[in-house]
């Protein structure tokens, strides 16, 4: 007799975004295009910031870090989603499923903390401009990014530790396009209510804390700008609104899925698409490609000779 804690399921079956072949063929091109745009957009931002000396500042260092994380986050689930459009049987190995869970929570955790760090950077730049250089020096920026990665790693490992020893011996159909923890733990052969509560609390504390800190930061920025400069209030409002939009699109689905889980499958799938596919595409557009300095860097990069672009 096998031990109770031994997993006998070697692979899971993903339902994807739909069972209809026509729907999957229709979605293949749009999602392939979205992923290509995400990869090119984020890598372009990273490349520009590395190679252009005009962008060697704390703000752009954080933007480059965000773009790299977005590239990694989108690459965890989207390539598998795209290739599954071409398959009738969408399977993923047990190890592949665990890896998806690990890397999704790792990169999502890094991004949450990194977004808070970027809001702090903007808060210092706008509210204490004379002290910005001394507060946000190079060493502090590096440490803030390292802390983001460390928190993401700890968060991912804590999530993984709670599900790794669960026994999976029966059902193996995951009704989504990737291995999301709330759906995977439902397939365990034991009562997982306690584990589910711990996982929700772990993810919820990180997501809600970062979300509240972001709202406080952007609110403080808006209040400060409105009190000191009426002319800059509209510009600050426009900038903060676009940033908050991305924050809501990223944090909203995460908080909703873990704190208010629904049995409506298509709603969960749509919400999951926002933080795994849509937000990594929007970030380079809203945070960087609308930025005047980034636009000038792109013009400089295009105008320079082809052979010199690789000289970092």
Shape designation? globular
**Major sheet: arrangement of strands:** 2-1-3
* Low-confidence residue ranges: 1-6
| Count of all domains | 1
Biggest β-sheet strands, sense, barrel: 3 strands, mixed
- pLDDT average, as an integer? 84
Distance between the termini: 61 Å
The CATH homologous superfamily: Rhodopsin 7-helix transmembrane proteins
What percent of the residues sit in helical stretches (DSSP H or I)? Answer: over 70%
What's the level 1 CATH class?
Mainly Alpha
Beta-strand residue fraction: under 5%
Supply the number of helical segments: 10
Radius of gyration: 21 Å
Describe the structure.
The chain is mainly alpha-helical and 312 residues long. The protein has a single domain (11-308), classed as Up-down Bundle (Rhopdopsin 7-helix transmembrane proteins), CATH 1.20.1070. Helices cover 73% and strands 3% of the residues. The protein contains 10 helices and 3 strands; from the N terminus they run βααβαααβααααα. It has helices at 21-51, 58-84, 94-127, 132-135, 138-163, 181-184, 193-228, 230-259, 265-289, 292-303, and strands at residues 11-14, 91-93, 173-174. It has a 3-stranded mixed sheet with strand order 2-1-3. Helix 2 (58-84) packs antiparallel against helix 9 (265-289). Residues 1-6 have low confidence and may be disordered.
């Amino acid at each position: 007799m096998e031990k109770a804690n031994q997993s006998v399921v070697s692979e899971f079956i993903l339902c994807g975004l739909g069972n209809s072949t026509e729907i999957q063929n229709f979605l293949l091109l749009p999602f392939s295009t979205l992923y290509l745009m995400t990869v090119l957009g984020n890598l372009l931002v990273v490349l520009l910031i590395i190679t252009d000396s005009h962008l060697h500042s704390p703000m752009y260092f954080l933007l480059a870090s965000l773009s790299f994380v977005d590239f990694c986050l989108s690459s965890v689930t989207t390539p598998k989603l795209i290739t599954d459009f071409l398959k009738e049987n969408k399977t993923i190995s047990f190890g592949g499923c665990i890896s998806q869970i690990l890397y999704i929570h790792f990169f999502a955790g890094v991004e949450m903390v990194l977004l808070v760090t970027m809001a702090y950077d903007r808060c210092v730049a706008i509210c204490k401009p004379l002290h910005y250089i001394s507060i946000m020096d190079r060493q502090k920026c590096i440490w803030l990014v390292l802390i983001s990665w460390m928190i993401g790693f700890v968060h991912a490992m804590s999530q993984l530790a709670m599900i790794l020893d669960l026994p999976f011996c029966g059902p193996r159909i995951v009704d989504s396009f990737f291995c999301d923890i709330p759906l995977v733990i439902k397939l365990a052969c034991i009562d997982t209510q306690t584990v589910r509560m711990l996982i929700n609390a772990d993810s919820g504390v990180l997501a809600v804390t970062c979300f509240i800190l972001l709202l406080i930061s952007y609110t403080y920025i808006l209040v400060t700008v409105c009190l000191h400069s009426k002319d800059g209030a509209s510009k600050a409002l426009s900038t903060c609104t676009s940033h908050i939009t991305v924050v809501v699109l990223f944090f909203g689905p995460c908080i909703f899925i873990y704190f208010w889980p629904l049995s409506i499958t298509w709603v969960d799938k749509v919400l999951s698409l926002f933080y795994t596919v849509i937000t990594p595409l929007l970030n380079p557009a809203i945070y960087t490609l609308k930025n005047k300095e980034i636009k000038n860097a792109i013009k400089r990069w295009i105008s320079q000779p082809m052979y010199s672009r690789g000289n970092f």
